[in-house]
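Notebook entry, structure prediction.
Reason for the run: the old model in the group folder had no record of what sequence produced it. Starting over properly, with the input documented here first.
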Amino acid sequence: MRNYERYKPLPILDYKERTWPDKTLTKAPRWCSVDLRDGNQALVNPMNIEEKIEFFKLLCDLGFKEIEIGFPAASQVEFEFVRQLVERKLIPDDVYIQVISQCRDTQIRRTFEAIEGIDKVIFNIYNSISNLQRDVVFHKDSGAVKYMATRAVKLVQELRWESEFPGEFILEYTAESFTGSDLKFAKEICEAVKDIWNPGPGNELIISLPSTVEELTPNVYADMVEWMNNNLSDREKFTLCIHPHNDRGTGVAASEMGLLAGAERIEGTLFGNGERTGNADLLVLAYNMFAHGIDPKLNLENEPEIQEIYERCTGMQVSDRHPYAGKLVFTAFSGSHQDAINKGLHMMEKTGSNIWAVPYLPIDPSDIGRKYEPIVRINSQSGKGGVAFVMESFYGYKLPKAMYSEFAQVIQNVSENRGEIEPAEVYNLFVDTYIDAKAPLHFEGIGIVDTAFDHGERQTLVDLMYTDHGQKKNIKGLGNGPLDASQYALEEALGLQMRIMDYSEHALGQGSSANAVAYVQLMNLDTGETAFGVGRSGNTMRASLRGLFAAINKLFYKEELEQIKRER
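New structure, fully documented this time:
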């Protein structure tokens, strides 16, 4: 027998009446965080009381109104944490505290002791209803499992009235391992619980259908949830909740489909922490809604702070590719992706649109507290668009398109040997390649001797000063502007054949103190080779001349220029 033959697919629900595939999510569910119970029990080193209190405050700040804080009957530490929240008056008035207990008398009684003094309580009792656990773990038939649940509900009911619990009290019944059970039995046990509790105003009931171990594809889970939603009686009298896990890696998909199928409430954890592969990730679910224009009813604007507290309190690490939170998820290395992002941002700026529409970025990172800096990162896979984006977004240099490929090749040559290149190094390579190409020819100054019109065109006579291999030179040239005149003068003095192919300039910064940047592309008319030079100055004319000299050095004196750089 081959390994895969040891497993068999679970039966698929024959449910042709499904309607959930035709529905769309339009509003946020009731959120319940189970980080402090389900998430905490899955940690290698569970949180201590002060860490749990800090985490509890984070959940309150995020806007969670229902928070499962622990299993008070499980240990003294769990019990003490509940009491600390009460005695230190840390529970906001609008937050429901959820506690969980097995359907066992001693645990239920101990849990009632823990919740004394809490104004709003969700009392969650559970027992497993899966076929496998009934046979293998409990050795009980369905009648015994049903009796366990109904007996627990009656005890909760009795203790509630005996203690004269003064606050708001909601019962939650969790049919643990729901997805591994027979649907008819799941309905039977939930109906029995409901009939005893008799839900109504002041006597609320939540029925939770967890995918305790994710065994099914998300669509089958949704079918099961919708079947229960349609077949449980008095549907308007209770809240239907889902609690998906992530064993198949589809916890978020199962959650979204379960909500489409009729669930109104969901339990999960931040970043999907939980036993085995974790719980449904409530942050991903909420950010998914946010990305579709739905108010998630949670305060999610500062993701980095959420992550910092989470990682510090739990000792867990969020992966680099975790949706919305990973440090690489708003990063593009691919050249085509970088180019598309760059163009998308420019289009939004050009049109003034407030609607986010940038390729490869489903949301604006700044909307959740992330920054633009890591969006485009440079390595050997990066292209011309990414390099141009870094130069403009980080440093304000708007490279002409004709320059993209030339500079991208410079970056690629370096990154193939070093790997990823930080933006600061991209900038340094730009300066070294284009601005600091100041030898063997070095621009010193220029003066306008005269201007006159010749055959309807303005002619400019310039007096150009520069050094050539350290020797000072002074030449004059005539052209239709200072740059044109300087080019002709240098052609004659140096015996070169060249043409200006492209020229552009822009201000670097704002205000009267802003520098000018000029980009000059020259062609060697003898060889057809081209090269860019860049000049920077507080004076536009000087910036253009510096760009011209840099281009000449790169195009006609390449070997000398490289030798001079090596000797620095």
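Summary: Residues 142-162 form the longest helix (21 residues).
The old model has been moved to the deprecated folder.
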